[in-house]
Amino acid sequence: MTETRIDKRFAALNQEGRAALVTFVSAGDPDLETARRILSGLPEAGADIIELGMPFSDPMADGPAIQASSLRALKSGQTMKKTLELVADFRKQDADTPIVLMGYYNPIYVYPAESFLDDAKAAGVDGLIVVDVPPEADEELCLPAIQRGLNFIRLATPTTDEHRLPAVLANTSGFVYYVSITGITGAAAPVVDEVHAQVARIKASTKLPVAVGFGVRTGEQAKALAKGADAVVVGSALVTAIAQSLDDKGGATDGTVPAVLNLVRDLSAALRN
Amino acid sequence: MMKKRTERFAWSVAGNRLPIAGTGSVNRDGRHDQQGAYTNDMATTNQPNKLNSYVTGPDERGHFGLFGGRFVAETLMPLILELENAYNAAKADPAFAEELTYLMTYYGGRPSPLYFAERLTEHLRGVAGGDKGAKIYFKRDELNHTGSHKINNCLGQILLAKRMGKTRIIAETGAGQHGVAVATVCARFGLPCEVYMGKTDVERQKPNVVRMHMLGAKVNPVTSGAGTLKDAMNEALRDWVTNVHDTYYIIGTAAGPHPYPAMVRDFQSIIGREVREQMMAAEGRLPDTLVACIGGGSNAIGLFHPFLDDEGVKIYGVEAGGYGLEVSNGHAASMNGGRPGVLHGNRTYLLQDGDGQILEGHSISAGLDYPGVGPEHSWLKDTGRVKYVSVTDKEALDAFQLCTRLEGIIPALEPSHALAHVAKLAPTLPQNDLLVMNMCGRGDKDVFTVAGHLGMDI
């Protein structure tokens, strides 16, 4: 597989000697135009890699914050086509910041999958995280994605023991996403020492960068978790900032875009200190 | 007419023709190809060649042709693989079969009778006129302990949970029949139990909520989505992923990630195996026609599976047509009104919009109000072995009343759908056609809902 934007970004950050900040927001949350402005401002605010959620009606691995984010986007009329257009528009202004689409399989499956991969690649997507497609089903989506030069990023979890880890790592590229808790997104805060041990264990088995996520809310937490890891993912905290900025009817306000970008600035500053 | 309920129920592994580890002589070579096993060409068609057998699935990765599989988050994968190993070990262990047989017999009340519904048969012969009108039997799984077929599966899975050393049980429920059965076996085995139930269903199935509370279960109302079975399943999966170390998830229907669809089917197939024996005893031959309702499809696959290779047996699954299939998002008929997709761990027919977002669907029956269906049913639909039809809320209500008045049996709203199809089908069949309908649940839980629809003052 040729070098992707994700590979290049991690190589550059490695030179700088700091961990990447990976930010998650849902495409179309709270509406397409506001989401476009958030996305557009993320690199300048300090996001090194952008995870963009593909909204789904039944986000089984997500906690209340991202569930609500997904539903806000769907309610405002978000579709997979609009999500890919959002990425294509972003690429016109930014040729370097990697974009990873994250979500669930069904909207991809019915797109259908092969066309989705073609369109995603054409739009400028760099990687995919599809929560409910395990390595056992690699031939469905992971291998065709790799064939098109898209990174397929897998989650490793506290339940991924030494028997399971090789299967998880086998076709993973770009980076490995270590889920720091057993649970849903935005749930309990991870125990830093345990995460460090687990990340070390994974890094002993792969040369790929390892990102840590699930339950990271503050700059302080991010900084603590970043030790020994290559990236920290923040999602629920950002979409919660969106939720708190909305008006009574759930519409975006003047405060919505700054609420997200200011939090990203804080997180980024913490990782750079 | 009926055999006395003296014979002991036997949960026979050998008799079940289980699919794993080459337990039969059927069609060993090329079996997976014939099932249309998934290949890397992202096939969207599922048209296998004519099959020598319909009972060999799933394959080792849990596929029934295109359908089934294991689409879950990585946190759950090790546990699902452990569950599969534990289930395979249990199937091979005579002690497991013995304990399950004992519980099914003396706790669950098996075998359930096969009852000749004489008055309904006569009534529908009157409707038919001439020499038409099938001879109708009810398989009376509503007489089981807890009032439905759900206990069959729960007894099997609670024994498995114990073998695996799990100390906490969770479940989802729609109508509450599965929730009650889970709460019951948890009380019996002294395990803490939490049941996820959509808020809408909590309201329309109050009697079962009260029963679960009395049995010591914690009922968690789920407010996301439309607050029905789909949302309850999402929430149960979120609990499982959080408490994976000590928790066993008793899925109530023949759906979800492999091995659940096959395992639940195996535990429910006692229904069909008993029907075979009981019909032989009553009539000296196998039935001609089988009818069962389909939500996720556990009672139906339990009745159908032991007959799939009996070519002469016509099989009908009845989906919930709600307000009618023509009403967008107004029904729960995923096979007649949906298309293949991936949800809750398996690929199967789903109610969804053009962008792959899952629809809520609608049915008067909480137990059928689910936008998916077990993957084996999806496969049986595509192979043509089973014919899937639908009936509306209104037809089910009419059948509910017909059965109550003619037979003195108050059916649950779920099998009332099967009854409604029987009322259409039986008058078209000859009088010597032996028809079996699975009376999979009793209607005590539904009397308030039905009274409301009928405008009765209670």
Features:
heterodimer, A: about 270 residues, alpha/beta, TIM Barrel, nine-stranded parallel β-sheet, B: about 450 residues, six-stranded mixed β-sheet, four-stranded antiparallel β-sheet, 14 strands, disordered N terminus
Could you explain how this protein is built, in words?
Chain A is α/β, with parallel strands linked by helices. Chain A has a single domain, classed as Aldolase class I (TIM Barrel). Helix content of chain A is 47%, strand content 14%. Chain A has a nine-stranded parallel sheet. The two termini of chain A are 34 Å apart. The model of chain A has no long low-confidence stretch (mean pLDDT 96). Chain B has helices at 31-34, 77-91, 94-108, 118-128, 150-163, 177-189, 199-204, 206-214, 229-242, 260-268, 270-283, 298-304, 334-337, 375-383, 393-407, 413-425, 447-454, and strands spanning 63-64, 67-71, 114-116, 135-139, 168-173, 193-198, 218-222, 247-249, 289-294, 314-320, 339-343, 345-350, 387-391, 434-438.
